[in-house]
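Lecture 7, part 2: worked example. A protein chain together with beta-D-glucopyranose.
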Amino acid sequence: MKKLLAIALSLLMMSACFAAAYADTEAVKIGISLPTQSLERWNRDGAYLAEQFKSAGYETVLSYADNDSARQADDIMNMLSSGATVLIISAVDGEAMDAVMSAADNAGAAIIAYDRLIMNDAVDCYVSFDNYAVGRLQGQYIESALDLPNAGGKTYTIEFTAGDTADNNAGYVFSGAFDVLKGYIDAGTLNVLSKQTELAEVATVKWDADAACARAAEILSAFYTDGAAPDAWLCSNDSTAIGVAQALSSAYAGSNVIITGQDGELASLANIVDGKQSMTVYKNVPNEAVVTFAIVKAMIAGEEIGEKLAAAVGAECVYDALSYETSAGKKCPSFLLAPSVITKDNLQELVDTGLYVMGSDGYLKSAE
Ligand code: BGC
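Predicted complex, written out as structure tokens:
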């Protein structure tokens, strides 16, 4: 923000004709760097972001890093060399961006950490969903599905599968869920037979479905040898949920394990219809793109990036200037959208977004 804001402020003081040149959208090139195309959501993010900026006349370059942090750094360096002055980055590894962040900073580019926080002070602002809230919704779903507050002497088994620790969101989502369930674990109502409850133990490299499946299969064969599947499996997102559901269906045909997820991936929505996944936390990514676009426009216009902007974006969005810090402890101005729970009982809510349609076979499809 400081950079474009400084540019915009100095432009205000300069000649009208220089300001007019800068106001030309073609003078601002937008670089969008996303982690992977292997999940539907990032394809949607890429499409919505690029579409918004392009239709407003901005030159836009979009790249996907195949979950490879070095490749992402190369992508961003190329964007800078081609003259990008605004970078919208969803980092593969939020702590491995220092070199590229200083290059961007030196080039005077504005940097928006998109969906995933980057742990570097050069970041101007952060746009995401409230990831701790995503985890809480997952934990609360399990709490209510097992009616844990009224469990009395009943006990249940549960296992955990989280995301990639290189992604800052993984920790927020996992803590949100774990904080809801911890009391029940401490009280002995929930038993984790694997005893794996630390993020580092339950993490899934690259949020990869196959890796989640392999770890789940190991846990099942080591700790669930009595023929009973766990009662619940907390999965931090849909790709990990798909892996865990796969391991469970290989080990226990017809088992009815409560499985959580996040994103609204079509394969998970099909699993929800089939009873192989219980819920997903839905995040309307077009809204994330809308907020990002509004921030960039405000930055370029030299307008304030804060509460008023969050209130004006037309989606449930909170401005938070205090909660998110880069590694050096700098507070990062943050815009956080609200996630919601989808189960087989409210799939219509997804259809109502206009982004999904219900097929005649009873499964949701993408509207595009
Ligand atoms: C995103 C999730 C996504 C995960 C894996 C997280 O940073 O917030 O929506 O499922 O990455 O790509």
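Confidence is low (pLDDT under 50) at residues 5-22. The chain is about 45% helix and 15% strand. Keep this in mind for problem set question 3.
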